[in-house]
């Protein structure tokens, strides 16, 4: 499957900057390059970026970095790393990674007179404080977000106030090539699932996440906020049992009090939330992996 195309509602990507060009950003860059775009990848050490991405070295949060001219599209796809602030608290690390990076990027775009037509920020569904199993979408309140979630909301707000027509893509949990820790936990017998209450989980295959970013970059009327998740919020236990059956191993067991204490924060976990992908789908996007089954089946093949 691919995105449904509507030529009247799409725009080309000509010169794209991916700021924070890690795994997800690299996937976005390569997809844009396949469409004929000239793509620049900015990160601290760009030496490992594959062709045809043009490597740019720089620290978004603290600089310095130089931007190419005539950019029409930008993706901000940063992720927290302890190497960027080993002595910072988790909230401080988020502030440096997201908010400081967004501020310096916007300042650089303005200072160099860039006429950026579309900007996509890869945010997170952690902006929602819902943890009782309720449904959330783009209209849901972020008023009860955690401290790190509030940093993401502040970053979204900062970018929305720029002249660059920004969209914040709130991604749920990423999985796919190189992101197989859940599979390994099931394979080793270490996986457990929450009970009382059972927990609802949300995820999106990393390739679909990259495709969603490109979809929004090319969409002339993209919303300011979009939830990026697959089409099936699902119980944690359902995913684990399905994986165990496919792997031919013993099914996972419910977690105990000692399990919860051994995994930081698990003892405070509630029933989770059900994140809707209706707006993303309604904008013309089709998931290649609409549920966890298609995505994990390919990983296990």
From TrEMBL:
Record Pfam families: Epimerase
Stretch list, region Disordered: 250-273
Domain NAD-dependent epimerase/dehydratase: 17-222
GO CC list: cytoplasm
GO molecular function: aldehyde dehydrogenase (NAD+) activity
Name of the protein this chain belongs to: NAD dependent epimerase/dehydratase family protein
Species of provenance: Rohdeia mirabilis
